[in-house]
Amino acid sequence: MTMLRTPGRRVLAGAGVLALLALTACSGDAAAEGGDGSTGRSTGGSDAAEITLWLNGTDTPQALRDYLTDTFAAENPGSTLVIEEQDWSGLVPRLQTALTSAEQTPDVVEIGNTQAPTFTYAGAFTDLTDLYEEVGGDKLLPGFVEAGSVDGSVYALPYYSGARAVFYRKDHFAAAGVEVPTTLAELGDAAVALQAANPAGVESYSGLWLPGQDWYNGIAWVFTHGGDLAVQDGDTWVGALSEPEAQEGLAEVQRIFAEGTKAPKDADSAEPWVPFNNGEAAMFSAPTWARWSIDLPECNKGVAPDDESEEATALLAEQQACNEEKTGVFPLPGLEPGTPATVFAGGSNIAIPAMSQHQELAKSLLRIMFGEEYQTMLAENGLIPANSDYASAMGDDPYATAAVDAALGAKLTPAAEKWADVEGDRILEDFFQQLASGADPATAAAQADDLITAALG
Amino acid sequence: MSLTRPDAAVPAPAVPPTGPPLPVPAATRPARRRRRLPTLGPRLLLVPALVAIAVGLGYPLVRQLVLSFQEYGLAQQFGRPAEWVGLQNYRTLLSDPYVWTVIGRSVAFCAVNAAVTMVLGGALALLLHRVARPARLVLQISLLLAWGTPVLATTTVWQWLFDSRYGVVNWVLAEGLGLEGMRGHSWLIEPLSFYLVATVIVVWMSVPFVTFSLYAALLQVPTETLEAAQLDGAGAVQRLRRVVLPMIRPVLQIVTLLQVIWDLRVFTQVHVLQRAGAPTRDTNLLGTYIWSLGGEFSMAGAMATIMLVLTLALTAVYLRSVLREEEL
């Protein structure tokens, strides 16, 4: 009878599955301890048990998962680690249910960096301040530590970060006589020049693919000019898009919207490589793993997706090499030549739910995850590791270099308790869409600021 | 409430409604009920259904009501005590002009969608009734397919059709009909055309139910009556208005009632279209607005209660007449 049942039912269904999982994952002492673990109280100590780690999506490769289960079992005789993969979509309602129950909660949980403040403020996680120095201290990605901290205590540690870089068609740049831009302003010029030249000769050709709702990319201009989404004023957060620094960046974004892109105003950052592969865009900005989605028609070898023969593998490698030869990549440039822009950081935090009945074992797992070996493995798989000391293991191909450069200056959404509400209300999608539709940046920003302030207050 | 009704089953002397309880109905009604429920058996048979309703519907409803009088967010979910705030949530919501905008939009959207659905569904039902068997079969299968496709799949397909860059609708308009202005047209960015697309999807999925229900009702209309009317000189329109419609009125009413309820609480289609690139704040309806309050369970609960009251108010007229029909 009420709309609440739509999301609610999904939560309940999720809870049902979790309950089933918990039946197999729970050990005998699960209910023995009380629920209040917020002070990181030791439970169990050397008691052997089975603990559960939730990882989201397929970002963590199987080899790393195997390493974790094997190492954990070796270091904690008698105990075992079970890794359960969760889907990113619907993760928040699932966590809202699971983390409140001592029977159903995982013992270590990965959470999106923009979701971390909400759960941290809610008291969902164990205080890890004691562990902080031991697992890396100020070597850990600072923005992510901030996202998981409240009042000087750390509750959620960084897990990995992924950064955005700009992919471009080398042949289009050459045909239009455009050089790879070295500053943010030059990037805008390049987008406009490319679109005017239209080297591909197709209808609705974009210099830079920038859809109207794509605030994940658009916000980089605000960050790079020194602006922010919201700033803390005493105890309250206020929207900061009207500040002069932000306005400078937004004016540049609006120029690209007007003259440098033909991307639809009613689309978001999903699948930017589709128009790129179609030859309808010279550049797009995306996380560096987008390299695997580039599939230019002139390179395509027509291999069936399920063909795993040797011949097919060789052809696919050839195809990928061809794609990467025709495609260049660079980190979004900053205000001065040679500096990277401040882009929006994507990535995850990792935390121990306060309700977990195996706090010591969970901490033991965190120590393994923050060890040199695991951090290096993350880096080797193209993820920027939590501890910046090990980022060099990412290698020095252009994608890794672009990723590391971009990640160094990357910035997160404000670590405000209610930031999730701003995303839930889709205030920024609406705001950038208004910019794309030609709204006055000052007026639109004032409106968006009011909404952000109201949502965060 | 039926005791004072002049049209109640038992002929009752006309008395002012403020008068004392009527002796006649009071005496006869229990007797009639005893005839209907002679033993305990039928009542026992009701128990499973009642338990299911109490657990499945009653508990969430009570919880929602309780929540709406508390301050209950994520922190409370994690054990912080929930504070009672009385009517604060309702006051906050009802004093927000945006909430009234959303309510207004939802009622308008519901009225248009329910009306269009009923008219189209009714017309198709009449068509089904008239055409030859092969055509009827094709029509019925098509309707079943449109109805049986999961709502998410349907919405996604329609969303692709209306895609601004690669959508078939824009392609046909621009290439086929030569409307150059429609090339790359964004259907979802203006609230009105957003609601047009949403209406197309909602109506597409609701028409089959209305058609089948009304078609079933039409089959119950005795041909003798229609023939008699025809012999008396009634034309086709007159037969429809004076004979057919009054005979299928109960079905018509209950289908309209359901349609109004469904269209008022529409969620999936609007949510998916919003995610496809519409401005969210300008296109929120009650369902998606409550969803966006998600993190604040108490606010969402209060808004859902407001919506419940609204639904009951909008359907009160129908509910009353439906209940009356059942009593007869």
Automatic annotation (TrEMBL), chain A:
Annotated transmembrane regions: none
Record flagged with keyword Signal: yes
GO cellular component terms listed in the entry, alphabetical order: ATP-binding cassette (ABC) transporter complex, substrate-binding subunit-containing
Gene3D superfamilies: Periplasmic binding protein-like II (3.40.190.10)
Assigned keywords, A-Z: Signal, Transport
GO molecular function, one term: maltose binding
Similarity section: Belongs to the bacterial solute-binding protein 1 family.
Signal peptide: 1-32
One Gene Ontology term from the biological process aspect of the record: maltodextrin transmembrane transport
Domain of life: Bacteria
Organism: Cellulomonas marina
Pfam families in alphabetical order: SBP_bac_1
PROSITE patterns xrefs: PROKAR_LIPOPROTEIN
Entry protein name: N,N'-diacetylchitobiose transport system substrate-binding protein
PANTHER family: MALTOSE-BINDING PERIPLASMIC PROTEIN, MALTOSE_MALTODEXTRIN-BINDING PERIPLASMIC PROTEIN
From TrEMBL, chain B:
Bias (Pro residues): 13-24
SUPFAM superfamilies the UniProt entry points to: MetI-like
Low complexity composition-biased segments: 1-12
Keyword list, A-Z: Cell membrane, Membrane, Transmembrane, Transmembrane helix, Transport
Membrane topology: Multi-pass membrane protein
GO cellular component: plasma membrane
Residue spans crossing the bilayer: 44-62, 102-128, 137-161, 192-218, 243-262, 297-319
Annotated stretches, region: Disordered: 1-33
Entry keyword annotation includes Transmembrane helix: yes
Predominant location category: membrane
InterPro entries registered for this protein in UniProt: MetI-like (IPR000515), MetI-like_sf (IPR035906), UgpAE/MalFG_permease (IPR050809)
Recorded family membership: Belongs to the binding-protein-dependent transport system permease family.
Protein name per Swiss-Prot or TrEMBL: N,N'-diacetylchitobiose transport system permease protein
Species this chain originates from: Cellulomonas marina
Lineage: Bacteria, Bacillati, Actinomycetota, Actinomycetes, Micrococcales
